[in-house]
Amino acid sequence: MTSSFHDTRWTLVSRSRGSDTQAKAALSELCKAYYAPVVAFLRRDGREEGVARDLAHDFFAKLLAGGAIDGADPMRGKFRSYLLMALKRFAADQRDRDHAAKRGGGQIHAVIEGESDATGAGLQIADTSIEAPDAAFDRQWALTLLVRALVRLESEMRGEGKSEHFDALKPWLTAEADATPQAEAAAKLGMSVEAVKVAVHRLRKRFREAVKAEIAQTVGEAGDVREELDALMSALRK
User: Fold this and answer.
1) 155 pairs with which residues across the strands?
2) pLDDT tens across 174-209, in order?
3) What is the third-level CATH fold of 3-103?
């Protein structure tokens, strides 16, 4: 874990403005935190996996070049929203360049994702069952944020000398809970099953606080945390 892990994203944005080593390191941390959501957006926007990853590197390279992120302002809202807007512009510009390169012979080649129509005319209708790029970005943002919160909580508990406690109860913070009887965790920790239930409740509460702490790093106002937490839950339900 880097020393900048607990810095707010807006603090990292401020530090990233410039060309010195500290600025580059700060912006690199931002890129690492949002790389997976950016790739998810580009994949849903019609790119193959390898192309999406290459474009994600290109997108962040533009940010690392300096200047492109200067418009980010915590008073204007969430860093996630700012980054998504910048990504949409980047993706649209890239698509225009791709279309321009493919255009020739006086014909314009329009491509719309989906199944071909029955007439064989080549027109394709978007499949509404396919996750939209914005939704893919938000869902991966939510998953990435949960992972960061879990890492934060694990670090805190190991620092408190509660590694065994965390390892035994971690399944109840993930999808592994159904496969792990609480009696088994109780035996490992030398606790009663009822005590384990209480411990799980407390751990979940701490995890929720860690999630909120991660969210707080990406918003300009404290009051936006609740809104972003709702957005996170909504993204995971889709």
Assistant:
1) none
2) 866 566 789 999 999 999 999 999 999 999 999 999
3) Rna Polymerase Sigma Factor; Chain: A (1.10.1740)
